[in-house]
Amino acid sequence: MTDLPVLHHHTAQLNGIKQHYVTAGSGPAVLLLHGWPQTSYEWRHVMQLLASDHTVIAPDLRGFGFSSKPATGYDALTIAADLAALTDHLAVTDVTVIGHDWGAVFGYVFAASYPNRVAALGIVEMALPGVGVMETAMVPVPDGNFLWHMGFQTVPDLPELLIAGKERPYLQWFFEHFAYDPTAIGPADLDEYVAAITQVGALRGGLAVYREFFRTGEQVTELAKTPLTIPVRAYGGVACLGELTLLSARAVAPAAEGGVIDRCGHWAAEEQPEVVAAMVWELATAGINKMRS
What we know:
The chain has 293 residues and is an alpha/beta fold. It has helices spanning 44-50, 76-89, 102-113, 133-137, 148-152, 158-163, 167-177, 187-197, 202-211, 213-223, 244-249, 268-271, 273-292; strands spanning 8-14, 17-24, 29-33, 55-59, 95-100, 118-124, 232-237, 257-261. The chain has one domain: 3-Layer(aba) Sandwich (Rossmann fold), CATH 3.40.50.1820. The protein has 13 helices and 8 strands.
């Protein structure tokens, strides 16, 4: 049996905050960006699949995991600056960026704001705000099958009041409801995410990303005026956003390719890690070829 690659944990003071990040492997760099309510832990399976031929980097974003949870700085441009500081610290260039959920928004804004650093971009299970697709998905439909939490979590103070002390059942609802296989994120994984969101300041920090929804959307709208020309892949899960992920990606990168992942909901890195890893391999190769052409 082949030994699994070792995941190395690090911290560094960058862009005014403590950034915790996990690395593995060697080779061309891949930056993996988590969403809410997760941390770098969501990428553990994908990192193990990629580490044989890539340097894989998975940070805890500002407000999440073991990174700092400051009072401000949760708009996409500020978090993109965090990522720029991290890649500077690691002397990483021509990186392939893969983002899931809000991590995809921050990955896009990083790629659009620092175009000389990013070779290719992957968007997994997210509709970018500011291009109309996410906003449409927030409109109420029967049985609660719409993105109601996107609006709820922008409200000041009230979500903390209602969620605090109920973090486990609240997160469990999302992990089960938005999955193809509701057992994909098991009790031990849920323990990990509950421990992360109940750290001091973490619930507030994660919700602050939602409270910056409108400012981040304005930033995306402005950046989209200059379409991306790097290779872009965008995939949604058949049981969640489906074709909407690619539709929104084409608003910022008209040549984006992708589609729908079968037997997958929102939590693609944990529901279908082999498919996500295969997408990263293909995308990283496309990015290298684009740079050489």
